[in-house]
Every structure is written in C-alpha cells, then in structure tokens.
Amino acid sequence: DEAEQLLSLKSFEISDIAEVKYFICLFKGFVQLLDQNHEGAKYEFIQALSQKSDGITAKFHLAISEIHLSDLDLSKSLVNEIVDFDLNRTHQSIEANKTNDFNYFVRNFISSNYFNDSVCYSLLEVFENRINDLTSSAQVRFLCLKEDIISLKEIKFGEMHEEEIYKSLDFIEEFVKNYQNSENLLVLENISKIEQKLVDTLKSILSNIEESYKREIQESLKIYDLKIGENVQLKARHQSEYELQKKRIEDKLKTTLTDYQLMMDEKIKSIEYKSENIESKPEYNPSASFKNSISYSLFLSLLVLLLAGFAEYSNSSVQEVTDASKVLTIVLFHGSKWGVISFVIGIFISLMVSASTSMEKASAKQRLAKTVSLLKNEKAENIKTIKEDFERAITDNEQKYKSRIDSVDEQVRELIEKKKQDESVMIERAASRVSKETSRTKEIIEHYQ
After folding, report:
1. Whole-angstrom Cα distance, residue 125 to residue 80?
2. What is the spatial distance between Cα 333 and Cα 338, in angstroms, rounded to a whole number?
3. Average pLDDT score over the chain
4. Quick check: 7 pLDDT over 60?
5. CB 281 within 8 A of CB 389
6. I want to staple 213 with a disulfide (CB 3.0 to 4.6 A). Which of 118, 226, 389, 430 is the partner?
C-alpha cells in the first residue's frame, strides 16, 4: 500500500506506472501464496494481469492458485497459454537460426517448473495430451529429416542468400542430431515447425537456382541490350542532326530571301525614284527644252536680222546713205522681216523640240515602269525558285535522315527478334537443367506437403 501511495506522488509515464503496479501486485500475490491465502493470491495475480495482460509470471502463479482452489479447467487453460509462450520463444529462435537460444529455451522452458511442486501433478494431463499426439510419429519424422538433410549436402545453392540457406540447414541438422531421441514437449511440438522451415529453405533453394539461371540468361542477353541501346542512341542522334540540319536550311532560306528581297527592293525603289524625278533631267524637261530652244531662236533671229539688214544695206548705194541713223533704219527695217520669219520658225522648232522632249519623257517613264514591272516579276519568280530549291533541300535532308533512321529501326527490330529467339532457347535449356538439379529438392518438398 505504501508503494502504491508513493507511486501516486511521483510523475511517471503511463506505461511505467502499469509496469510498476504489475510488480506490486505480483509481490502481494507471492505474499498471499506464502500465507496459503489462495483466494487473495488469485485476486492479486488477476490484478497484475489487468496491468499487463501478457504477464507470464502472473499467469504461472495464478494457475497454481487455481489448482489450490480446485479450478482445474482454468489452470489447464493458463498452462496451455504458458506452453504456447514457451513455444513462441523457440519459434523465434528457429526463425533466426539461433541454435544456442533454442537449446536454452528447450532445457529451461517456463512450464516445466510446474513439475517442481507436487500439487501441480494434476496438470500432467495437459502435457500428456499434447505429447501423446506427437510421440508416435516423432521417430519416423526425425529419420526423414535426417535423410533429407544428408541428401541436400550435394546441392549447389547458387550465390543469392547462400549463407542464410546454409545457416538454416545447419540449424535443422543440429536440431535432428540433438533431439532425435528426445521426448521434450517443446521439441516434439517444434517438429512441424522444423519441417516447415526445411520446406521454406528448399523453396528458397529452388528460387535461388532458378534466379541463378535467370541471371545467367540475362547476362548472356546483355550484348543485345547493349547493341539495342547503342542503336537507340544512334537514332536519337540522327533525329537531332535532322532537326538541326532542317533548322539550318530554314534559317538559310530566311536569310537568303531577306537579302534578295532587300536587294531587289533597292533596285525597284531606285528605278521608281528615277521615274518620279525624271523631269529633273534637262533632256526630259519640256519647259526647259522649250526655253532653251526659244533662247537659241531669239539669238538666231537677231543674228538673221543683222545679217539680212546689212545685206540690204550692202545692196544700197553707199554714197546715197551716209547718215548713221539711216543706216540703222535700213538694217533694222529690212532685217526685221527676216528676223521675224526666223523667230517664227524658231518658235515652231522649239515647240517641236518641246513636244519631242515630252514624248521622250513619256517613253523613258514607260521604259522605267516596264523595268520595274520586269524586276517585280523577276523578284517573284526568283523568290519562288529560291523557296523551291530550299524545299527540295529540306525534302532531300528529310529523306536522307529518314533512310538512316529506318535503317536503325530495322536493326533494332532484328536485334529484338534475335534476342527473343535466343532467350527462348536459353530458357528451354535452363528449364531442363533446373528440372534435373531440383528433382530431389522437389521430391522432399512434396513429401512434407
């Protein structure tokens, strides 16, 4: 009671509190047993189990209390639970291939302590019932295990889990050697477990052998995977080169078209500029031509006027005309007629020249317009030709790389087909060899199933 009060004053984890309470109840139960108070002991052990349901010590002594209270059914049930606990410990050591642990648990199993107290002899029925069902076949089963272990010594287990397989077989061999004549309950109860361990080990051996051949086949087929991988990489490289080459052609087409269009546009603009500014050239300016012709006509008219006037003066009598004013009058009067006539003719000629200039200008503009039209047509035709040339280049490039890629694909298909054929042959051969190597192993497995 003081321990419980002290426990309530301390701060512990819930799990720790339950553990401490379990031991307190155990101690109180032991005290009650020593005082021959079996009802009190029963109560305390039940309280202990309420704190720890799998408490083996509490179950063990609760069974003793129940014997004293003549409740054999509950005692036997508890004893069976304790035997099962002993078995579970041996099972764990079997699974872990721990021979020393197994031997310890077999020689020091908890339920054997019931034989130290004469009052527990009434529980012998529990052990007898479990042993009687096993002893009749134990020797035969031990003999089969021994023979099977010997026959397995010649089997090659392969590399995978080899160490674990040998450990399992060594454990089974030690079990048979140490306990083939034993009537220990835990030994007899574990024969089935050992047989199952042998079956599981043999299945691992079968799996190991099959895996060994599979690895051998896969290793042999690696050359195909390597070649297929190389071809896949080659195909990817061809595809990449094709895309790169296609982009280069397209970029070159774009650059070529741009440069050509700029060049042609410059030519066309230059000619159009000449056409628009054709009158800036004197030879194509009617007004300038007319003005120049009039200027020449005026100059010629004056020249004709003077020449004609002096000619008339020369025909006159020099003696009669001595006065300067009269001379000038004669020159101007008689020369003006021819001057006017020559000027009129000059005007007519100027008009003709101006008209001719206008016609020449129109003709020049027409020629320039025709040149522009021809250049535009040439530009369109050449652009079309350039595009067609590049389209052919793209098509040729595509066909070239398509041929390469198709060739690689064909090689991959051939390799895959050859791999399947070789794999099929290898699997068939391996199956035959596995069948021969595992025939004895399979017989043993079938014997235990």
Report:
1. 11
2. 10
3. 80
4. no
5. no
6. 430
